[in-house]
Every structure is written in C-alpha cells, then in structure tokens.
Amino acid sequence: MSKPDITAERLRELLSYDPVSGVFTNRVSRCNVCAGAVAGSLSKANGYIEVGMDGKSYYAHRLAVLYMTGRWPEGYTDHKDGNRANNAWENLRECSASQNGANSRKKKPNGVASSELKGIYFAKRDKRWVAEIKVGRKKLSLGYYDTEHEAHAAYVAAAKQTFGEYARS
Predict the structure, then answer these.
(1) CA atoms within 13 Å, Cβ hemisphere of 93
(2) CA separation (Å) from 102 to 27, 47, 106, 121, 168?
C-alpha cells in the first residue's frame, strides 16, 4: 500500500475529525466546500467514505488513523463492525490483509452451490458439505461434513483459533 501525499499536519489544517462519530468536517472553506460542512461522501461502488483534498481522494478510515496517530497506516484498516461507513475511532483497527479478510462478510458464490453461512459450500460430486478457511493467500480445507451446520461449526472454530478477535462467522 502506497503512502499518500498528505501529511498529518495538512490533514489537521484542512479537516477536523470527531473520534466518537467518525465524521470529518471542513475547517476552512475551499473548492466549493464550506467550513463546518461534513467532508467526504459515501462511495456507491464500495461503501467507504471518500474525502477529496488537494486534488486527491482518500478513504476516511485511513485518514482517521493518520489524524489520530500522526502516521499513515502500514497495512489495512479494518472496521470492527463490518460497516465501511462507520469511521468512529473505537470501530477502527489496523490489521493485516488476512485479518481484514477474516472480518469480511461471506462472499457471493461464484458458480458453486453454496450456503448462506461463511466458510462452507456444498460439493455436489461428493454430496457433502466442505469447510475451508483462507489464511494469507492459501485456502485450507477443514474437511467434509454431512450437514451444513457441522461444516460451519468447523469453520467457526478454525476462524476463532486462527484470527481471534478478527473472526467473523
């Protein structure tokens, strides 16, 4: 992840951040924005709040880390509750790509008979449920199960053991 052109000093000069609400507001009037107005807008493409400054666009959750710590986050910034628009400081934490993925919602199936439950799918050929977990860039099989709930229980246990507080089932 590349570092931005914006510094903590420039960010604090242009915006104010409320760590309780997670909302940025403009400190000064500039480029069609008024001082005191909420900064940024919700991206319909991905659900993150994006804030424009000095001709560039930044994600508000990453700006919150810069604002609060004085440094750009090294890895990812995770929303604990899974709500990409909730940038309250207590809801944000720095993490690795693997931890960020562990806290994601279930992905939509890609041509595979699937469950609504995360970490499992139905293997038509074997007529059994398969549990798997992704750690780093590797998918690890957790085995085959007769029921959807047995497979999901295996995934949940592995996720808690592997990812701890980042596990989302």
Answers:
(1) 13
(2) 36, 18, 10, 17, 6
Tokens of residue 139, six digits: 């998918």
Contacts of 58 (CB under 8 A, 6+ apart): 4, 6, 50, 51, 52
In sequence order, what E strands does the chain have?
15-18, 23-26, 41-42, 49-53, 56-59, 76-79, 92-95, 120-123, 128-135, 138-145
* pTM metric for this prediction: 0.70
Distance CA 64, CA 87 (A): 7
- Torsion sign over Cα 140, 142, 144, 150: negative
Q: Give the model's pLDDT for residue 110.
A: 55
> Which whole number is the average pLDDT over 117-131?
88
Beta carbons of 41 and 35 less than 8 angstroms apart: no
Question: Where does the pLDDT of residue 26 fall: very low under 50, low under 70, confident under 90, or very high at 90 and above?
Answer: very high
| Size (the chain), residues | 169
Domains and CATH numbers, the chain: 8-95 (3.90.75.20), 105-166 (3.30.730)
